[in-house]
Design brief:
Blueprint (H helix, E strand, L loop, with lengths): L2 H9 L8 H6 L5 H13 L1 H9 L4 H17 L7 E5 L4 H12 L3 E4 L6 H11 L3 E5 L2 E3 L2 E3 L1 H8 L8 E5 L13 E3 H8 L14 E7 L7 E6 H16 L6 E4 L6 H13 L3 E3 L12 H9 L3 E4 L1 H10 L2 H4 L8 E5 L5 H11 L6 E4 L33 E4 L12 E5 L9 E2 L3 H9 L6 E9 L5 E6 L3 E4 L2 E4 H9 L4 E11 L3 E10 L7 H14 L8 E4 L13 H10 L12 H9 L3
Parallel strand pairs: 1-2, 1-3, 3-6, 6-7, 10-11, 10-12, 12-13, 13-14, 23-24
Antiparallel strand pairs: 4-5, 8-9, 9-17, 15-16, 16-18, 18-19, 20-21, 22-23
Bound molecules: adenosine monophosphate.
Length: 592
């Protein structure tokens, strides 16, 4: 080497640190992590290389679950105690759920997109002694501050004794030495000791999952041990036709019932190979799902109609870059799928060879009740087809009489099934009233449907005030409660309107307290307020200011009219019970 070149190399002292933006999304995100890996590779090469070589095996999962359940026992938790889990989509989330199940603790998973106020409500309702969370989760290259949200939520919850924090995103978080415990340290200290599984009664509660209903507060749907698991295992096997060599991928977050039953319990009970992912379908680029399918040779793919509509919008160029040849079965869940989206899924992703299972079910039903069986049932785009064996479903009129083919009515289930919810946590009366009182002895789904001449079910949407945004369930009254908690809002009424991508979007009619005037700034502030109170998924598409809201003579807000105004801009039909017809005229004119 020429001597001046050598000289300049010897003098070179410029340093380029990785850009924070890059590190944030990198697999190895810090020098500390690099050093930890180096140390592990030296001290325990077997473990290091095994970690690099494997996907998680069932044996490892069992040992992690056994160890973590011992950690839970050592904290003094007793059978029946509630544990809130608020974590990203990482294997430790599954470990936490199964560890609770192993020693009889009732878990309640909260979707990572919910805000601290939403956690607070669920904490108070469940009176959980323990919260399991992580410092953060990853979403589109940014950290979701899970621990911060928990810190805020537990401020007024003295009954929470401990918060276990998984170190995941590794940013600095506030640490309360009285309550906070580090997951990794607890596991390290625990060593290899595994708690014995506790024998439970078939009817002991397995979990509580909060979901939206018609009141301002979410309800805690309670599922029990044996019946839920039988249904979860059986339906997963029948509907997804699971085989030993399948690689199954459900894109749902475990914070929803789909994740509980068809990411965790039903799939693991079948011993299947399942794929979990953290993040978003369009990050780092819009072909992410198809890349994952090719990379891991996914054979069964289960996602939502909203995701499919987004793929269509993003263009065929993305899936066309991939072979997708490993796929043999496709599924959808969470909301009605429009036939065009179904056809696109069938052609573009399924290459016209994969059956599509359009699965109808609810948080309350625990598992799928209406779905094609892929080797047996001819499918029709947009129909969930037929009830599964053991399910007696019907479409009835207001009096509960069965309706003839092609007449729309209420979807009901006439016989019990093993995975049905057993109660609403702490409110058995509400359970009886909500699900069993419309037609005594018959389960009320809250959905409207029709059955065609072949007996196929077509779900038409909700009969109540539940709104489905991107397949996520929200209660009108929950969003209304969030809005009226803003000091400028006197009253509000929230309705769902059709949305091209999300299925439904949220429109909020708002009256202001005297002295406050409508403005664009206030609209933005109110939208943000809803996000802070509930989470980004509840953000209204539109805020419409009104001088008054249309009410019946008995004072009930007439949402049907508001829904029509919001989606069609006018009202048709009967308005004879309206207290003041001029209110409606004023609302129809008020544009966003
Ligand atoms: P969730 O409890 O959040 O899963 O919401 C259940 C509701 O989602 C049901 O009552 C339906 O309104 C809707 N839903 C779920 N799956 C389907 C489907 N395959 N087709 C139509 N609607 C569905």
């Amino acid at each position: 080497m020429a001597s001046d070149a050598l000289d300049s190399l010897l003098k070179e002292n410029r340093v380029f640190k990785p850009r924070q933006e890059f590190s944030k999304q990198a697999t190895i995100a810090s020098l500390e992590e690099y050093e930890r890996l180096c140390e592990l590779s030296q001290k325990n090469p077997d473990r290091f290389w095994t970690e690099q070589a494997d996907a998680l095996t069932y044996a490892e999962l069992k040992s992690e679950v056994g160890r973590f359940s011992n950690v839970l026992k050592n904290l003094g938790l007793q059978k029946g105690d509630r544990v809130i889990i608020y974590m990203p989509m990482v294997p430790e989330l599954v470990v936490a759920m199964l560890a609770c199940a192993r020693v009889g603790l009732i878990h309640s998973v909260i979707f990572g997109g919910f805000s601290s106020t939403a956690i607070e409500d669920r904490l108070h309702d469940s009176q959980a002694k323990l919260v399991i969370t992580a410092d953060g989760g990853w979403r589109r290259g940014k950290i979701v501050p899970l621990k911060d949200n928990v810190d805020f939520a537990i401020q007024k919850a003295p009954f929470v004794q401990h918060v276990i924090v998984l170190q995941r995103t590794k940013q600095k978080v506030h640490w309360n030495p009285q309550k906070d415990l580090c997951w990794q340290e607890l596991m390290e200290k625990n060593g290899s000791v595994e708690a014995e599984p506790l024998a439970l009664d078939s009817e002991d509660p397995l979990f509580i999952l909060y979901t939206s209903g018609t009141t301002g507060k979410p309800k805690g749907v309670v599922h029990t041990t044996a019946g839920y698991l039988v249904w979860a295992k059986m339906t997963a096997q029948w509907i997804f036709d699971l085989k030993d060599n399948d690689v199954y991928w459900c894109t749902a977050d475990i914070g929803w019932i789909t994740g509980h039953t068809y990411v965790v319990y039903g799939i693991l009970a079948n011993g299947a190979t399942t794929l979990m992912y953290e993040g978003a379908p369009d990050f780092p680029e819009k072909g992410r799902f198809w890349e994952i399918i090719d990379k891991y040779k996914v054979s069964i793919f289960y996602t939502s109609p909203t995701a499919i509509r987004a793929f269509i919008q993003w263009g065929n160029g993305h899936p066309e870059k991939y072979s997708l040849e490993s796929l043999r079965l496709l599924g959808t869940v969470g909301e009605p799928i429009n036939p065009e989206a179904w056809m696109w899924y069938h052609k573009m992703i399924g290459k016209e060879k994969c059956p599509i299972v359009d699965t109808w079910w609810q948080t309350e039903t625990g598992g799928v009740l209406i779905s094609p069986l892929p080797g047996a049932t001819p499918t029709k785009p947009g129909s969930g087809t037929l009830p599964l064996p053991g399910i007696v479903a019907d479409v009835v009129d207001r009096e509960g009489h069965s309706l003839p083919a092609n007449k729309g009515g209420f979807l009901v289930i006439k016989k019990p099934w093993p995975a049905m919810l057993r109660t609403i946590y702490g409110d058995h009366e509400r359970y009886k009233q909500q699900y069993w009182s419309t037609f005594p002895g018959i389960y009320w789904t809250g959905d409207e449907a029709r059955r065609d001449e072949d007996g196929y079910f077509w779900i038409m949407g909700r009969a109540d005030d539940v709104i489905k945004v991107s397949g996520h369930r929200l209660g009108s009254s929950e969003i209304e409660s969030a809005l009226v908690s803003h000091p400028f809002v006197a009253e509000s009424a929230v309705v769902g309107i059709p949305h091209e991508l999300k299925g439904q979007g949220v429109v909020a009619f708002v009256t202001l307290v005297s002295g406050q005037a409508p403005s664009e700034t206030l609209k933005d502030e109110l939208k943000k307020h809803v996000v802070t109170q509930i989470g980004a998924l509840a953000r209204p598409e539109q805020i419409r200011f009104a001088k008054q809201l249309p009410k019946t003579r008995s004072g009930k807000i007439m949402r049907r009219l508001l829904r029509q105004i919001a989606s069609e801009g006018k009202i048709t039909g009967d308005t004879t019970t309206l207290e003041d017809i001029s209110v409606v005229a004023a609302l129809s004119q008020d544009e966003e």
